UniProtKB/TrEMBL annotation:
This is ABC transporter substrate-binding protein. Residues 208-220 have a biased composition (Polar residues). Residues 100-415 form the Solute-binding protein family domain. The keyword Ribosomal protein does not apply. It comes from Nocardioides bruguierae. GO terms for molecular function: peptide transmembrane transporter activity. Keywords: Signal. The lineage of its organism: Bacteria, Bacillati, Actinomycetota, Actinomycetes, Propionibacteriales.
Length: 531
């Protein structure tokens, strides 16, 4: 068998001190977001500074705030960078991908890890002038049953990480009771789920459409043009102001990959999230690039019960699809991508590096499994797409045709129709930045949009429970490895490949940015002036 390519990383810098309210967090899910295109620049190879030494300009791949400034409306890592400047979170992720207290000064669990007690930093001040209290945290978390708040999906009633009760005890103590043990609750309360909105924003949620109400180290500037450029100014008397390298940051969404790369090499922005297709172009201009793994592309199996396509109720059929896809051929379509048969990124705790060999392309074995499941002549099913993934889907379509499975690719009439397909088709397609694999499985694979049918699997349930209740790192790694394997073995996901995130930066102005674990966007605190 072909050996698995290694996922090399850019060298990691020495860990910085974790600020009391550092700006980094892990995501538990990746949701699609709209974007407004911004103009790219010219193609000058000399990347000059975009602003004075007190300002930083970063180019996003899409609009980080399409629905306004309530951080709980979003669940993706792409919002962390900008929203982390405006809002503090209960916990944050450090550069190793581990959750650290932020608005929390101390925390503890009960014996079975179902009750989490938080002691808060009540000096944190919101933009409305009020300060953090236990009641404010409770009022935030009590919004968890609002279906519009994507960051709270897992915490809602019936969610995989359901919170059954939140109690405020005095001014600085919050007691959170989960419906089941949650030993990894600190990571679940990092990033958007742990970001705390101030009292004014809570009392008038509509105001958050135009005005953030957070306690972050930056405030939104009047220079902001929504959808085009988001400008934030440092609060110089904020206790964490010294942890940030710039007095002003501009976040500019530029949807077109080449226009975004052009804006960087021409000096319009100081740092940029690059698409794989433009990395070689930027490298050719002599610019500095830092890479990080963790963006996993694959096919989530929505239908495990056979409700939309009867064959998908069979685990043998789902395993056949995993064996019938040539991951190496598909990964070769994307510069820098490596084949993967795992939901977990290669750098994540619990990543099972044996899956790629176990699920190496084997059409004969796939046909045998289909025959065992009662489908010796194969079957057909629809796949709804918006058109962005046609190259991958056409390759998969041809490969599955070789084992007798006809995937009928249909163009969605609208974005809404594409999202609705999770209830009407057995399979989807997506890219997921998975910084907290356990949280992603709980909130998305089992408790979120990948499982609207509410299917269950004994192996997955057992592995999740073991990871939640693990008493030491070794036990947690063992449980997470079992979980990674169970997801593929049970055919809840058809992994394809893992990509690197590439961030270009002006090395004359900036030190090398640092990522939190395997997440896609760097830590905001790591954007520091070059020494």
């Amino acid at each position: 068998m072909t050996p698995r390519p290694s996922l090399s990383r850019a060298p990691r810098r020495a860990p910085r001190r974790a600020p009391r309210r550092a700006l980094a967090a892990a995501s538990v899910a990746v949701l699609a977001a709209g974007a407004l295109a911004a103009c790219g620049g010219g193609s000058s190879a000399d990347n000059g500074s975009s602003a004075d030494d007190g300002a930083l300009a970063f180019a996003y791949d899409y609009d980080p705030a399409p629905q306004g400034y309530d951080p709980l409306l979003y669940a993706g890592d792409s919002q962390r960078l900008m929203f982390g400047s405006l809002y503090d979170s209960l916990f944050v992720m450090d550069e190793n991908g581990d959750a650290q207290p932020s608005l929390v000064t101390d925390f503890s669990f009960n014996d079975d890890s179902s009750v989490l007690t938080l002691t808060l930093d009540t000096s944190a001040t919101f933009s409305d002038g009020s300060t953090l209290s236990a009641q404010v945290v409770k009022d935030n978390l009590d919004r968890r049953d609002d279906p519009t708040l994507a960051a709270y999906v897992g915490f809602a009633a019936g969610g995989e990480t359901e919170i059954s009760d939140v109690t405020a005890e005095g001014e600085d103590t919050v007691v959170i009771t989960f419906a089941a043990p949650q030993g990894g609750a600190a990571a679940l309360l990092a990033d958007q789920p742990g970001m705390i909105v101030g009292p004014d924003g809570l009392s008038d949620p509509d105001s958050l459409a135009t005005t953030p109400d957070g306690s972050g180290s930056y405030t939104l500037s009047d220079e902001t043009v929504k959808g085009s450029s988001y400008v934030v100014d440092l609060v110089t008397d904020d206790p964490d102001a010294g942890d940030y390298g710039f007095d002003e940051i501009t976040f500019t969404p530029i949807v077109d990959p080449q226009a975004r790369a052009n804006a960087f090499v021409s000096g319009e922005v100081d740092a940029v999230l690059l698409d794989p297709e433009t990395v070689s172009f930027v490298e050719g201009q002599g610019a500095a690039i830092v890479e990080n793994g963790g963006l996993v592309t694959g096919l989530p199996v929505f239908d495990k019960l056979g409700a939309t396509s009867e064959p998908f109720a069979s685990v043998e059929v789902r395993q056949a699809l995993n064996l019938g896809v040539d991951r190496e051929a598909i990964a070769a379509l994307h510069d820098g991508a490596v084949p993967s048969a795992s939901l977990f990124p290669a750098g994540a705790d619990g990543f099972d590096d044996t899956l790629l060999d176990d699920y190496a392309y084997d059409p004969d074995a796939a046909k045998a499994l289909l025959a065992d499941a009662g489908y010796p002549d194969g079957f057909s099913f629809p796949m709804i797409t918006l058109g962005q993934n046609d190259t991958d889907l056409q390759a998969i379509q041809a490969q599955w045709a070789e084992i007798g499975v006809e995937m009928q690719i249909e163009k969605a009439a609208s974005t809404e129709a594409a999202f609705a397909s999770v209830n009407t088709t057995p399979l989807g397609f997506g890219q997921f930045a998975i910084g907290n694999p356990l949280g992603f499985v709980q909130g998305v694979v089992v408790g979120g949009f990948m499982n609207f049918q509410g299917a269950s699997d004994d192996a997955i349930t057992a592995a999740v429970g073991a990871a939640q209740g693990a008493e030491d790192d070794a036990a947690r790694t063992e449980a997470l490895t079992a979980l990674d394997r169970a997801i593929t073995d049970q055919g809840w996901y058809v992994p394809l490949y893992e990509s690197f995130t590439s961030v270009g930066y002006d090395a004359d102005k900036l030190a090398e940015p640092v990522f939190p674990g395997t997440l896609r966007y760097p830590l905001l605190t790591s954007f520091q002036p070059a020494s």
